[in-house]
Amino acid sequence: NAGVMQNPRHLVRRRGQEARLRCSPMKGHSHVYWYRQLPEEGLKFMVYLQKENIIDESGMPKERFSAEFPKEGPSILRIQQVVRGDSAAYFCASSPTAAGSEQYFGPGTRLTVT
Amino acid sequence: KNQVEQSPQSLIILEGKNCTLQCNYTVSPFSNLRWYKQDTGRGPVSLTIMTFSENTKSNGRYTATLDADTKQSSLHITASQLSDSASYICGAERGGGNKLTFGTGTQLKVEL
Predict the structure, then answer these.
(1) What pLDDT does A108 receive?
(2) Residue to test with chain A: of B25, B99, B104, B106, most A Cβ within 10 A
(3) Out of A6-15, A54-63, A81-90, B92-101, which region has the weakest mean confidence (pLDDT)?
(4) CB 3.0 to 4.6 Å from A45: which of A59, B7, B36, B61, for a disulfide?
């Protein structure tokens, strides 16, 4: 059973470009979470999705950031018009059920904005 | 405000020695407390999950404790190995949701 997969592992974007980060959850998992980790800071919750639904997006910046988890295919975290402050590691986690269940993390996507 | 604080920020120990990492949380309502190990450049890997009714849980050489009254947890590592060098992250989950609040981690280095 493959673990959580994220791609790309590294992404370089110039200021103003768009960044698309992909996350394929573990097989059988229908709950996906996105976290951001800045250097010297802890993981910060961004958004929690189930298939075709956003359950909790309280950690997402109001502008430029969006997330989706379609019926088919991976979950996508999209950052429009990136700025230098968006440079961070973005981690995706998945779980088989709801609250209290184990969250399995992917290897992360390291976004660098130049 | 929901917060998780960890101490120490960093720690260096000799191989074979034991160590204890601390975590204080103010997440409310509280559901469970988790410890993760994160190697440099990798995603976090779960070590333990404890609900408010559990006082201790072990995973090999890792033993976590939880005091829900004082809102404190600790992670004890026994007979440390070089491969234990990593960041250890504490996370608390609120009741009623899957949202985790994490501390900034303790950076552990095990030396010969």
Answers:
(1) 97
(2) B99
(3) B92-101
(4) A59
